[in-house]
Write a structure and sequence with these properties.
5 strands; globular; mainly alpha
């Protein structure tokens, strides 16, 4: 007998019978994201750590030695006030203390972890923009290829080639956290959040907004300049998608801002609100504005039309026939705000704001991805946009990014290859952690602190060391290395900074009192001991 009016359970067969449902199938982004994670992890590990890696390894070494009161990252000085001692670095220091690993090893292992945060954050962000399943895959391609025809080797810039060097840096982790923060902001502003964010009364609880603020505050502590772009993105999503405003809504977003400020304010290692705008740091970033077009123009031929389409749709949807509400699209508004930030840095001389370019290009890159993920059939305009984007991506791969994944031995066209810096393990086996060194080589002064050694004069500006003091130290080192220096003068400088070692290139004469201990066959540098 058949009973009508009652729901019947569909019969299940095979491997799904025990679960009573369909078999799990990975999304396109899960498949290609995993492949990308594997390939880029291997690409990152095959390249010797270089550039800022020595600085970050030095931070881990200092925290490993003293978690609560670390010394200056690269000098025999107190480290109070140094922005390198962020929550990210402290977590690395704890990991190093628990495992016994050195700074270089921890930075190396951080690469795939940061990449995982980056990829999951990007996927979540794109899903907040569109449900199209291929949009995150295309966003990943756009983010890594649509840059310029000249390689841009800076932390915080997520081109393929740059990733081979900076995946282990705090900037990569902060970028991933920013993607997560934007996604959660978009969900709240657009009322697309999941059930767990809704309270018993049907309204979103304050705890979720406070937690979001803690996330933004963490970005500020981990990488302050990334937080500038993170803030503009947050403003863009809230301004564009928060359609209903009331005192309750204002209070919730105020809780987010307050939680972010409080998170940064209570961090005991440094003052996060005094970092951006430092004159010494600004001068270092001046080269970012040199050849700016060559570093980013490939994102424009397809990105600007995609943003134009989004702006037009937003305006038409809000008020048919007008453009007055084009700012209702978050990517359009984000692009406009970020361009203002970068332009302000160039005009004002605060060149540090040029680092925001790493996320400024994300808006057109995401816009292209969302447009090209639309279901077929495509109209002629979208087909043209796809052809332009594919051509730009191929151009970027062949001219600037391909060397990241194509080794030199298999390179058929002469790709730009990642940098291969020399190792200074040969010198570190003699120099004990905490012993000051006078070095004159470009690579040496940026690498040796990663083994625990100190420098008489730090390379990078740091609020933990007054710039006038750093300039005085640099002048003393120049006087020590001068051919006209005297034994008495050199001894006085060595005593002043407790110098124990010299690591010199062929450009400088070795003082007569120094004793050679080792030398590098690759670089020709000499390690010598200075008598006490």
């Amino acid at each position: 007998m058949t009973v009508t009016g009652l729901p019947a359970r569909r019969a299940t067969h095979g491997s799904t019978a025990l679960r009573g449902g369909r078999a799990w199938r990975p999304t396109p982004y899960q498949v290609f994201g995993l492949l990308f994670w594997l390939v880029m992890t291997l690409a990152y590990w095959r390249v010797p750590l270089c550039c800022d890696a020595g600085q970050h390894a030095a931070v881990v070494e200092r925290l490993k030695d003293s978690l609560l009161h670390p010394r200056h990252p690269t000098a025999d000085l107190p480290g109070t006030g140094s922005p390198y001692y962020s929550p990210y670095a402290v977590a690395q220091g704890v990991f190093a203390r628990l495992t016994g690993l050195g700074g270089w090893e921890v930075v190396r292992l951080a690469g795939p972890v940061n990449l995982l945060v980056l990829l999951t954050g990007l996927g979540r962000l794109v899903r907040a923009l569109t449900p199209r399943p291929w949009a995150p895959v295309l966003a990943l391609c756009a983010m890594t290829l649509l840059w310029g025809t000249e390689p841009l080797w800076w932390s915080g810039f997520m081109g393929l080639l740059s990733m081979t060097g900076n995946l282990g840096y705090p900037s990569a982790f902060a970028t991933g956290l920013t993607f997560w923060a934007w996604a959660l902001t978009a969900e709240r502003a657009g009322d697309t959040g999941r059930v767990r964010y809704v309270g018993p009364d049907g309204r979103r609880g304050m705890a979720g907004y406070a937690g979001l603020g803690v996330l933004y505050g963490t970005v500020l502590l981990v990488h302050p300049i990334t937080s500038v772009a993170a803030m503009t993105g947050a403003v863009a999503f809230v301004a564009a998608w928060q359609r209903s405003w009331s005192w309750a809504v204002v209070a919730r977003w105020a809780v987010t801002g307050g939680a972010a400020a409080l998170t940064a304010a209570v961090w005991p290692y440094f003052d996060a609100f005094t970092l951006v705008g430092n004159s010494g740091v600004d001068e270092i970033h001046r080269p970012l504005y040199d050849g700016l077009t060559a570093h980013c123009w490939l994102a424009l031929p397809a990105g600007l039309p995609a943003l134009w389409l989004r702006a037009r749709r937003a305006g038409v949807a809000d008020r048919p026939g007008t453009w007055r509400s084009a700012w209702r699209d978050p990517l359009v508004l984000m692009a406009a705000l970020d361009v203002l930030v970068v332009a302000y840095g160039g005009v004002s001389g605060h060149f540090t704001y040029g680092r925001a370019l790493g996320l400024t290009l994300l808006a057109p890159q995401l816009a292209v991805a969302v447009e090209l993920a639309a279901p077929r059939p495509w109209r002629p305009g979208r087909r043209l946009l796809g052809a332009v984007a594919a051509g730009a991506a191929l151009t970027g791969f062949l001219t600037a990014q391909g060397g990241a994944v194509v080794p030199r031995s298999l390179d058929p066209v002469g790709f730009e290859q990642p940098r291969h810096w020399p190792s200074y393990a040969w010198a570190a086996q003699y120099v004990r952690p905490g012993e000051p060194v006078i070095a004159d080589g470009y690579y040496a002064v940026r690498s040796l602190p990663g083994y625990g050694a100190d420098l008489a004069v730090p390379v990078w500006p740091d609020p933990a060391l007054d710039e006038a003091e750093r300039a005085r130290r640099a002048a003393d080192v120049r006087a020590y290395l001068s051919p006209s220096s005297t034994r008495a003068g050199r001894d006085a400088i060595a005593r002043r900074y407790h110098v124990r070692w010299l690591l010199l290139t062929r450009q400088h004469r070795l003082p007569e009192e120094a004793v050679v201990v080792a030398w590098s066959e690759r670089t020709g540098e000499v390690l010598a001991r200075v008598p006490r």
